[in-house]
Design brief:
The two termini are 37 Å apart. The chain folds into two domains: 221 residues, Rossmann fold (3-Layer(aba) Sandwich); 106 residues, Beta Barrel (OB fold (Dihydrolipoamide Acetyltransferase, E2P)). The protein is elongated, with a radius of gyration of 24 Å. β16 and β17 form a beta hairpin. The chain has a six-stranded mixed beta sheet with strand order 6-7-8-3-9-10, sandwiched between helices. Strands 14-18-15-16-17 form a five-stranded antiparallel beta sheet, with no helix packed on it. By secondary structure, it is of the alpha+beta class. α2 packs parallel to α4. The structure holds adenosine-5'-triphosphate (ATP). The site of adenosine-5'-triphosphate has 12 residues, from β2 and α1. GO terms for molecular function: ATP binding. Keywords: ATP-binding, Cell membrane, Membrane, Nucleotide-binding, Translocase, Transport. This is Sn-glycerol 3-phosphate transport system ATP-binding protein. It comes from Herbaspirillum frisingense.
């Protein structure tokens, strides 16, 4: 199975720089997610790996071979797009076999390969249908089938689930991840959905405005965000960032007398994950501003001085707006970010 590496890859369209200085390695058999907000360069990066666009600088290697100048067909990759790109006039069978036939792969192998892929994806009873006679999830499986039957060592996916409803998305996430592990595919998957990235990936590459903000496994991205941007991009709800201000005895949460022991230079922000803050009998007084109940937990919006923050408390909490609650957290769950650069303080 293939490993992929990008070295100093950049792409500009006229004056506009879509991505710059992209460096990363994808291990063979790993599931890597390119994550980031709209316009950060995810699709551009994927298209460069696929060979659909040529980089303006840098090089791309697959399995140790420099493929920068190779055409897509020579790169041994398969690709699944957001729009499934199925042929409406072809049956499921013919859609899945399309690429295999175009590439003139041995006819004798077609039936067995089709059978395996159809069984794997639960499509065996739908082979004679046309795309219009399938549900969204089934169409997505056909698109996956076409990628899997190619037996290409690398599979690239660009937001493949964005046309599906929330429940089906979750099912398909699990299916894609299970298939990738079962077939030991090297996968690069583009999404702007952090829950998708966190739940599927071995490695997350978080992009921002064309550069890599952080490249780490999900657990590290969550526990040790490199920057305030990374901290805010991950988590539901995301990490709270509270501005700190000078206080005669050190540093306090801005607009309050709540002291935060932290050596370092201002400006500084305190990062606290909503799930790390407890509603306690004793602690920092805060005023309740919002209460949202979700069944398993309650998200409480509260204010300490000038700082608004969200608390994720297990179970149901009937709190009145304006009521004073007490908040507590462990010092080890505090993260500090430099106010100007946004970098996490080590
Ligand atoms: N063919 C093109 N010509 C000019 N600019 C482009 C082209 N393709 C992409 N760009 C620009 O490059 C930047 C990155 O685009 P890209 O599609 O890679 O972002 P993305 O992260 O995939 O966004 P989205 O999640 O919205 O699809 C954007 O500013 C975009 O406008």
């Amino acid at each position: 199975m293939a490993a992929i590496s990008l070295r100093g890859v950049g792409k500009h369209w006229g004056q506009a720089q879509a991505v710059k200085d992209i460096d990363f390695e994808v291990k063979s058999g790993d599931f890597t997610v390119l994550l980031g907000p709209s316009g950060c360069g995810k699709s551009t990066t994927l298209r460069l790996i696929a060979g659909l666009d040529k980089p303006s600088s840098g090089s791309i290697h697959i399995d140790g071979q420099d493929v920068t100048q190779l055409a897509p067909a020579q790169r041994k990759i398969s690709m699944v797009f957001q729009s499934y790109a199925l042929f409406p006039h072809l049956t499921v069978r013919d859609n899945i076999l399309f690429g295999v036939r175009v590439r003139k792969e041995p006819r004798s192998s077609h039936a067995a390969r089709l059978q395996r892929v159809a069984d794997l994806l639960g499509l065996s009873h739908l082979l004679e249908r046309r795309p219009a006679q399938l549900s969204g999830g089934q169409q997505q499986r056909v698109a996956l089938g076409r990628a899997i039957i190619a037996d290409a060592p690398v599979c690239l996916m660009d937001e493949p689930l964005s046309n599906l409803d929330a429940q089906l998305r979750q099912e398909m996430r699990r299916e894609i991840r299970a298939l990738q592990q079962q077939l030991q595919m090297t996968m690069i998957y583009v999404t702007h959905d952090q829950t998708e990235a966190m739940s599927m990936a071995d490695q997350v590459i978080l992009l921002r405005e064309g550069h890599i903000e952080q490249d780490a496994p999900p657990a590290e991205l969550y526990a040790q965000p490199a920057t305030a941007f990374a901290a805010r991009f991950i988590g539901t709800p995301p990490m709270n960032l509270l501005a700190l201000a000078p206080h005669p005895q050190g540093m306090a949460i801005s607009g309050s007398t709540v002291l935060i022991p932290a050596a370092g230079q201002l400006p500084l922000q305190l990062g606290l994950r909503p799930e790390h803050i407890r509603l306690a009998d004793q602690g920092v007084p805060a005023q309740v501003e919002t209460v949202e109940y979700f069944g398993a937990d309650t998200i409480v919006g509260a204010r300490i001085g000038a700082a608004a923050l969200l608390v994720r408390a297990p179970g149901q909490h009937r709190l009145a707006i304006g009521e004073t609650v007490h908040l507590a957290w462990d010092e080890r769950d505090q993260t500090f970010f430099e106010g100007d650069s946004g970098r996490r303080r080590p």
